[in-house]
Amino acid sequence: MPSEPDKNLALDLVRVTEAAAISAARHQGRGDKTAVDQAAVDAMRTILSTVDLDGIVVIGEGEKDEAPMLFNGERVGNGHPPEVDVAVDPVDGTRLTARGMPGALAVIAVAERGSMYAPGSLVYMDKVAVGEAAAGMIDIEAPVAHNLLQVAKSENKSVSDVTAIILDRPRNEDYIRQVREAGARIALIGDGDISGAIATSKEDSGVDILFGIGGSPEAVTAACAIAALGGEIQCKLWPRDDSEREYAAREGLDLNQVLATRDLVNSDNTFFAATGVTSGQLLDGVDFGGTVVRTHSLIMRSKTRTVRFIDAIHHIDRLQDMATFDY
Ligand code: VTB
Question: How far is the CA of 313 from the centre of ligand 1 (A)?
Fold first, then answer.
């Protein structure tokens, strides 16, 4: 039976990420990543309190003792239904923003209560992500060359035309080596692998597959978007040392388990919103024109797979009259 069309929360959530992006972008290039994060958290939390949802932060700014706001377990929204899990990344790429580098996003994702994977203290995951054409063809446990060949086949191009996006960290050097040996191209990013993972699902992004060890919270958030885009992400928990291996054993976390999209977010109805803070492969950054500010956002929902790019013009003077934080 067709169900009644229900509310697309993403249309409300984009106001949250627009406000966070504008507030954070004010600090672009000023060298203070803490100020970037605080501005985005203040804005995100304030606007989020106006949204019709009864949310629990599953992916947030950290444990309560580390983060005064948007901490894991915090109740957010105005308390009205639906009951949801919330993944917030006020700025994925605070360092990028502080240094004035491309690719920073303000991000939020929402899905049914209890659907999001909670990574706990294991802060890193090994990841591979691809777009819809290659979905179902990759295997994180296979050699890099195999996955590159699969992507090439899915897009009717040669491996030498495939571009892998990789977070530039020493722990990813072996990925970089294997991609080079296979003859594919590489796009390195300094930070921001939510954007990187989602970009593999965007036709004209110039990247086809994400490899690399990045943040666990970011993997869950990216999965909410990838679920709506028809792409695929596969992850494995990546302990940094013996203490994290012992933690995983104590918590019954299987380090050999491949966490696919539905393991990261077990939902047919994810909502995702992101607004560009600095311009990157996915979205344009915030453009300040005096009292008028432009933002570029991407919102989507997995139930309908509706994807919207939203160009918005904001009259900051009017918004500031209504805000308790600095736009
Ligand atoms: C990762 C990545 C994020 O920070 O968490 C990275 O997923 C942190 O890596 O997108 P390091 O601890 O090695 O710095 C981001 O790049 C930005 O939050």
Answer: 30
118-142: pLDDT as tens digits:
988 899 999 999 999 999 999 999 9
**Measuring CA to CA, which residue among 174, 148, 177, 175 is closest to residue 161?**
148
- Give every CB contact of residue 119 below 8 A, 6+ residues apart in sequence: 59, 125, 216, 217, 219, 220, 237
- Ligand 1 centroid – CA 71 distance (Å): 18
Do the Cβ atoms of 124 and 216 come closer than 8 Å? yes
pLDDT in tens, 152-194: 999 999 999 999 999 999 999 999 999 999 999 999 999 999 9
- What is the phi/psi pair of residue 186, to 5°? -135, 135
Q: Which amino acid is at 258?
A: V
166 CA to centre of ligand 1 in angstroms:
11
CA gap 198, 32 in Å, rounded: 27
Nearby residues of 157 by Cβ (< 8 Å), 6 or more positions away: none
Distance between CA atoms of residues 29 and 285, nearest Å: 13
Ligand 1 atom at minimum distance from 123 CA: 5
Task: Choose which residue among 167, 171, 241 to substitute to test ligand 1 binding: the one with the highest number of ligand atoms within 8 A of its C-beta.
Answer: 167
Helix (H, G, I), strand (E, B) or coil at 120: coil
Ligand 1: nearest atom to the Cα of 96: 17
Q: Does 12 sit in the ligand 1 pocket, CB within 6 Å?
A: no
